[in-house]
Amino acid sequence: MTEQIELKRATDPRIVKMIVFAIGVQEYCIPILSVREIRGFEKTTTLPFAPPYVCGAINLRGIILTVIDLAIYLNVPPQPDNPRRVAVIVESKDGVVCGLLVDRVIDMADIDLKDVQAVSEEGSCLAGLVLVDDRMIGILRLDTVVGQLVGDTVSE
Amino acid sequence: MDDILQIFFQECDEQLQELERGLSALSDGESEHETVNAVFRAVHSIKGGAASFGLDNLVRFSHVFENSLDGLRSGRFAPTHDVVKTFLKAMDVLSDLVNEARGGAAVDPTRVAESHAELAAINSIGGDHGGAASAATTEDVIPADFSPVPIDFEPVAADFEPIPFDFDFGEEKPAPAAAALRVTFHPHDTLYERGDDARNILIGLADIARECGGEIQTSCDRSALPPLADLVPDKSYVTWHIVLPPEVSEESANAVFDWVSEDCDFSIVRESAEDEVPAEQDGEQAEPAETEAAAAPPPEEERTAEPPAPESALPPAIEALLPMPVAAALDLHAGSATTPPPATGAAQAAARKPEQASIRVDLHRIDDLMDLVGELVIAQAAIESLSRRTDAAGQHELVQSISSMQSLTRDIQDAVMAVRAQPVRAVFQRMQRVVREACSMTGKDIVLTLEGEDTEVDRTLVEKLTDPLTHMLRNAVDHGIESTEARIAAGKPAEGHIVLSAEHRSGRILITIKDDGAGINRQRVFETAVKRGIIPPNAVLSDDEINNLIFMPGFSTAATVSNLSGRGVGMDVVKQAIQSLGGRITISSTPGKGTTFGFSLPLTLAILDGMLIAAGGSTMVIPISSIIETMIVKQSDIYALPDGSNVISIRGDCMPLIPLATALKLSDAPPRDSLDASIILVVENESGARAALIVDEIRDQTQVVIKSIESNYRQIFGVSAATILGDGSVSLILDVSALVASAIGHIDSKPSNTRPELAA
Questions:
Q1: Which CATH superfamily is domain B2-145 in?
Q2: What is the largest CA-CA distance in chain B?
Q3: Hey, are the CB atoms on B712 and A49 less than 8 Å from each other?
Q4: Shortest Cα distance, chain A CAs vs residue B582, angstroms
Q5: What start-end ranges are recorded for coiled-coil regions in this protein (chain A) (predicted)?
Q6: Which of B360, B187, B349 is nearest to B260 (CA)?
Q7: Residues B724, A59: C-beta atoms closer than 8 Å
């Protein structure tokens, strides 16, 4: 019975499973299908000429990828001395893999796309806002965030 | 069948290389019997293999080629420049035909025909005494010295075609004089399916006999013919025996079968030599004949074994039983005869996918590797047992054990690299052809000399070198070397000369392309660059910088765009290709004397010897190959420049000082008041320019595995790649050339190696 509901949810194109995490006090989410894994934060290797929000590079089983400190990227004050900081390893549509440094991962949520309120700004890293259990959650536009890493058009 | 075809194509590649080597030896004036034989064997083997796979085009062409080569072998004509040239051209066509058979692009038939005609023309030079002479030569040269290729042949269909009944095959005459030529001919069904007729062959034989003033005697072997009731109308059942007059050469008799060799069994035997194996005789002119002859016995047995069976068992009462076994037998043959073609097709399809998916490796290299792996297992066991001991001595031994394991690992790495290493010969020899084709397009006369073809590099590199080298050589032919008139006017030999060489130099491979042309016209390069808006008109550039302008995208000085080059794409593509392989290009050019391009490439794309250093709190790797020396500086050697940077004088040689942490803008770089006693690494880029890098610490020297960072990040200035250290952390590999170039750009636009010239 539960399986059927699961199936119905999975097949309904308007409902997307998202992973919800927090940076400071603000909560954000990204589609769970783009997440490869979640790792504890480890020491990164500083990259020269990197924009400030790039923490550095880490080794993920032989693949070198960069970690973005979302707190700096989104200009949100992070929680100080947080032992639960984790890196969410994501893969964009273009196959670029990178890590997103977040303060904590909260849970998963089924988000109905028709509940999403669009953010008017074009090219923003936020795709929209959605209300889950009276909490306002921002939906990150992953391809914008990751795309900036690869492209040359990074504003430093 | 697929596998065998695959092997055949591999062999073709090898034979073509052999052919190329032989022909270039010939063009260098070496006309030893062995060389000529090697060339001949190569073509012969290709032909033999092709015939057994039914690759008609290839067989026909290689047949003509072989005939001409035979003329050379028997000494009918000498390997003059023109002759070798024609052979080289024919070789190109041949390799294209091989490629076509493999499923590559179809070959332009006019090219084949042209080369065909040229070969025939050569052959007629020496062959004017007519066929008899050539027959004589062929006879005495052939038998012993060639090794027939191992070949797989399609089973010969053992069912036959009905004879056209209007044909008169009745007459039987006694065999004539001893030297008469005896031809046995048995058409397959396919001969008729292709719309040909056995009659045409017989008429053809009669014609050549008439040309020699004789007549043919024909007899027909009807033993295989079933009774009328069992006769299948569209099967071929009979075999002809034709006796040709002695004047007829085997060659001309063979020519009659040229177009049907696939569709019939035939043998041409001198009466006197009848006892010998016919294949030995036939092999010379027609490999198909050889294969067929070799193939002939089993089917012949079948033929005589099976059809007579019905005949002997013919009493009408049993007739009803017969169709079964006969039909089964026929089915069997039909099955075996029809399966090969589709299989061949599939093999061709398969051959299209992987470009040379296998490599040949010397057995001793594999053995070395095996030995090393054995040692590794022992070392591992030793470490395991040592790690269980807790005493201090055990600890010490463990360290020793690990260090021996370290050197073992390195040896294994070298051994694996050696397995992957391939000589650059394959690519270099392809370049001969590029130059030849470019020459024929531009009408120039240019000789390409290859040096160091045995230099070995990783096979991935070998493959990726082809395109850049092709571009460079075309450019050298088209732009580098002047026209013949201009050369003569300049007092140079009319024949242009290009040297393509490869050598190992300090852990890299250096490939140089040197021409003796006019050199780079710097004036014109400069003007063109200004015209195209690449540089401002008032720019002041050194010679070297002007030379490097030709690598700018969209640059071309050629007055006219030719077929070959001059569209302004090419040099920048070459540069990108070489850079993507981790290589650099250098140019040096003397007006009137020529231009030399150098490619410096890493030996492998996977592993690098590096020095681990620390700067600005990060551990980084600098390729050992670019480090000249390390030292601790004295304040007295450092001179400050007005713009705030410093130069250091090392034994009288001045070079810029680069504080690495600052140069890479690593955030936590500590500001240093005094540079005294800092550790520096003197590094050099490919063009010999040097700089001194200030680092915080030199940690270790190690081999690192190169990992790309660009797949998940953009390119970073001063960083060529990254690696993963023993502790699992990421470390950056520095791009020394970029660092040096930028430092020199700040201080002095001339690389240090030009200074002696300036001083002189």
A1: HPT domain (1.20.120.160)
A2: 120
A3: no
A4: 19
A5: none
A6: B187
A7: yes
